[in-house]
Amino acid sequence: MVQGLNQEIKQTIETAAETIFQALKKGNKVLVMGNGGSAADAQHLAAEFVGRFLHERKALPAVALTTDTSILTAIGNDYGYDSVFVRQVEALAMRGDVVIGISTSGRSKNVIFALNRAGEIGCFTLGLTGGGGGDISKITDLSLVVPSKDTPRIQEGHILIIHILCDLVEQRFV
Q1: pLDDT in tens, 97-115
Q2: Cys bridge to 5: 10, 50, 73, 101, which one at CB 3.0-4.6 A?
Q3: In which domain, by residue range, is 72 found?
């Protein structure tokens, strides 16, 4: 899957995969979030890690912060929508975890707040964005930016990146 990518993004994806692998190998987990279509991508990534991508292997600890409607609505009601992910990061993230924020614009406030807090906790932060990368590409440890301003193309790029990450991480465990 990686052969057709330019060298810079290829190296960034490989670095992200190795970082995720090392965190999981040490007993840490992956937390992932996004809004709308990016929420679906977050759930897809977590499902591939907990289930499997292509090969039989142990389940890998990954949680999409987009799935629990009681948590999302309670936080949204009590603290505002900008806090729906940061409160979960505060509750679940530990030093050494990997926290992934997905945003086609790179400007989703709730994702930015959560990534900032994750960094303060000592997590490795990874952004999947589009266009110019937005604020997310400026605050994360590593950012994968799909070079497009067209949301559908960015989303397609994100699912390709997610599949490559899943494949590379999984290969290291089999």
Answers
A1: 999 999 999 999 999 999 9
A2: 10
A3: 7-173
Question: Could you give the number of structural domains in the chain?
Answer: 1
Q: Is the pTM of this model over 0.70?
A: yes
Place of tokens 């992934």: 100
Q: Is 102 strand, coil or helix?
A: strand
Domain assignment of residue 1, yes or no: no
Strand partners, 102: 34, 128
Cβ-based neighbour number of residue 167 at 10 Å: 16
Q: Give the domain CATH number at 138.
A: 3.40.50.10490
Please state, in angstroms and rounded to a whole number, the distance separating the CA atoms of residues 2 and 16.
13
- Torsion of the alpha carbons at 130, 156, 9 and 96, rounded to the nearest 10: 80
The letter for the amino acid at 168 is L
Task: Tell me the pLDDT tens digit for each residue of 110-152.
Answer: 999 999 999 999 999 999 999 999 999 999 999 999 999 999 9
The CA–CA distances, whole Å, from 33 to 6, 55, 79, 81 equal: 26, 25, 18, 13
Q: How confident is the model over 48-73, as pLDDT tens digits?
A: 999 999 999 999 999 999 999 999 99
